Amino acid sequence: MISDQAKKEIDIWVAKYPAGRQSSAVMEALKIVQTENGGSLTGDLIKAVADYLDMPRISVQEVATFYENYNHKPVGKHVIRFCHNISCMLNGADDLISYLETKLGVKTGEVSKDDLVSVKKVECLGACVGAPMCQIGDKYYENLTEQSIDEILDSLK
Amino acid sequence: MNKVCLKNTNKDNPSSLMTYESSGGYKVWRKIIKGELSHGKILDELKTSGLRGRGGAGFPTGLKWSFMPRNQEGQKYVVCNSDEGEPGTCKDRDILRFNPHAVIEGMAIAGYVMNASVGYNYIRGEFMEPYYRFEEALNEAYSAGLLGEDINDSKITFNLYTHLGAGAYICGEETALLESIEGKKGQPRFKPPFPANVGLYGKPTTVNNTESFASVPDILANGGQWFADLGVPNSGGCKLFSVTGHVNNPANFEIPMGTPFSDLLEMAGGLREGRKLKAVIPGGSSTPILPAKAALKMNMDYDSIDKAGSMLGAGSVIIMDDTTCMVKALTRLAHFYYDESCGQCTPCREGTGWIYRVLKRIMDGHGKNEDLNLLLSVQDKINGNTICALGEAAAMPVKSFIRHFRKEFEYYIKNGKSMVAKDG
Predict the structure, then answer these.
(1) Which of B89, B92, B117, B126 to mutate to test the interface with A (most CBs of A within 10 A)?
(2) Interface test with chain B among A123, A136, A144, by most B beta carbons within 10 Å
(3) What is the pLDDT of residues B209-257, one digit of tens each?
(4) CB-based contact, A54 to chain B, within 8 Å
(5) Cα–Cα distance for residue pair A86/B244, rounded to 1 Å
(6) To bridge A14 with a disulfide, which of A25, B206, B380, B399 should be the other Cys (CB 3.0-4.6 Å)?
(7) What strands lie across the sheet with B159-164, from one edge to the other?
(8) Which residue of B has its CA nearest to A93?
């Protein structure tokens, strides 16, 4: 269920914590298996992480459902996480989110027909001086405009 | 401006060890390794400096460190809170990106003072660029022999690791953060016992904010008095302020405590043409909003902002001009707390939902005359009745928005639309 490569990555995290405290690596373990699975978790993956870290399955389930960054439904190849909190809102985030939805023909929370992109409204991402902003993968895109959104979408393949 | 945490931002390769050392970095840590600086002396300097916790609570850092049972047997921990997520706050991101070695040195010094040989830096899961920069810096510090076991035969050991979050504002609360490192849901713990006695894995632990740690090396290099003199009484030093919202040049500014708000507004390029200042949230979304008149009279220090009716918090200054609809702004903040409540305490879990839904119905044109009193009553029932401060953080904006902009809320309820023609 968990590939050897993913196990290697999880082990790097386990090594950061005291012996017997491997459950500290659960958040990263879930992220690693989620990435390997195309961006979302399944019940089987949650069980596999629990077995690998020797944790009760319910504890892993709790973590997987408490934190925002785990998905429990399939997502697009690229997830656009658009901040709609106060500083972004004051700088026109709502209009840009509508623009993005219209352009992609999807609502927030949905996946585009070609499975390439999904859009999610998120709370503050801590880059308020660059408002309005969004995150795709590891990268932040700041000071967004309709034009820069067009360019970003064109670059997503 | 930019004298401490951001001093290297405009240099080439600001996050590198070379840049950090060229501006005096790791001098203090090297002195400690050589046995030339005692923990008692460090605590004295920190207390003199007036450094107060930069994450928002403003607790004196030197005092916090002195609570750790230094001579108690067994493992102790130092933890850095880089789980920056309070709306309007984005200063720690810049410290991690442009001055990660100052955080490392600050944490190592803390480890020495509190006799803690292991540290964790909890970085929010979305901060991948800052995480990579910090990891790079960590590798440099290990390669240079500045971290590890028995550093330079000094009998001082300090190992530092990063831990990544996964999207939960509540983990910025220090005991929720410790739960999260332990691999659990981020739900705050009852206090007492305080982390200094029972912290990470049940061991004595001190948690400080990124900016607090990053300020420590320069304080010790230049002396506590030097830092204190940068600021004003009771608000020592300089501090980062993230100025966002309706300004021409939103940015982080590291300025002396006590700087007039009007000067800071000017640094941020002032308001857009033809717009007037309407309101300011001075310390992040959890701190009470102030009308323009009160904000323009305040200086950026703990006491002055307190006197104006709000709090310095994390120094996250959100500027709103006259196009802002206060009902919409509060509804957005209410949604945030509703979304981020960890669900542990009933007043917060249920109350944040009530507040959001009542505001939402006002926004949808179905507001009732009694709704404002209902909102005030709900916030009052959250306040003081929860394990952690998220409850108060959710309640305070409601009270202050209604107090200062009641007419706008009444207008929305009566007419089913905003008093402000166009917002945004």
Answers:
(1) B126
(2) A123
(3) 999 999 999 999 999 999 999 999 999 999 999 999 999 999 999 999 9
(4) no
(5) 9
(6) A25
(7) B159-164, B118-123, B77-82, B205-209
(8) B424
What is the pLDDT, as a whole number, of residue B423?
Answer: 46
What are B264-285's pLDDT values in tens digits?
Answer: 999 999 999 999 999 999 999 9
Does A12 contact B at CB distance below 8 Å? Answer: no
How many C-beta neighbours within 10 Å does residue B139 have? 12
Cα separation, B246 vs B424, whole angstroms = 9
CA–CA distance, B283 with B297 (Å, rounded to integer): 16
Q: Which residue has the tokens 């009530």?
A: B354
| B105 phi, psi to nearest 5 deg | -65, -45
Two tokens, residue B317: 């200054």
Judged by CB atoms within 8 Å, which residues 19-38 of A form the interface with B? 21, 23-28, 30-31
Residue A134 belongs to what H/E stretch? strand A134-136
Residue with tokens 């302020």: B241
